[in-house]
What we know:
Blueprint lengths: L1 E6 L2 E4 L4 E9 L6 E7 L6 E7 L4 E3 L7 E6 L4 E6 L8 E12 L2 E6 L3 E6 L1
Parallel strand pairs: 2-11
Antiparallel strand pairs: 1-3, 3-8, 4-5, 4-9, 5-6, 7-8, 9-10, 9-11
Amino acid sequence: QVQLVESGGGLVQAGGSLRLSCAASGSIFSINVMGWYRQVPGKQRELVAVITSGSRTNYADSVKGRFTISRDKSKNTVYLRMNSLKPEDTAVYYCNAESIYNSNDSQHYWGQGTQVTVSS
C-alpha cells in the first residue's frame, strides 16, 4: 500500500503561482509513476502532469509552459509548480502514484485532494 499526502493548495489571483507537494509513504519502492490530476464538479478527473521513476515528464496541453512537475526521490515527494495561473485552473488537485506490475496490471493510489482556486 502507498499513502499520499498533499499540501500547498489555496487561493491565488490570476497570474500568480502556487506549489503543490505530495509526500508518499508505505510501499514506495513499488511506485513507477507519480503525477497530478485535477477535477472540477461535474467533469471527469483529468491528467495534469506525470513524472516517471526515470524523470520523464508529460503534461496536459493546457498547462504546458506554465506548470512544472518534479520529484525528490530522497524525500519521496513530488511537486507541481504552477505559474501564470488562470481561473480555469481552479479545481481539486489530486496526487497519484502508479505501481506497474506488467503491461496488463497496475495499481493507482490517490491522495485526498487539495483545492486550488484562482480568482480573476
